[in-house]
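pasting for ref
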Amino acid sequence: MGNRLGTARPEGMWKLVFYERTGKRMTVDKTAPWLPSKAAAQSWAQFYIRQGYFVGLQAQDGSVERLTPGLPG
């Protein structure tokens, strides 16, 4: 996609959302700083998933993409 000047639009900012299991509930534990691209956020998310964290990606518009299996949503 492009804009009226013919340049590519940025895909927006993304941040990691960390979930914590408390009993049978999953709650948002903390969030990371905004990252400049979805690719960068996905790379960090994969790192934390390998470390055992429950992770989702939050877009600038507030929508959350849950990456770890078993997250509610």
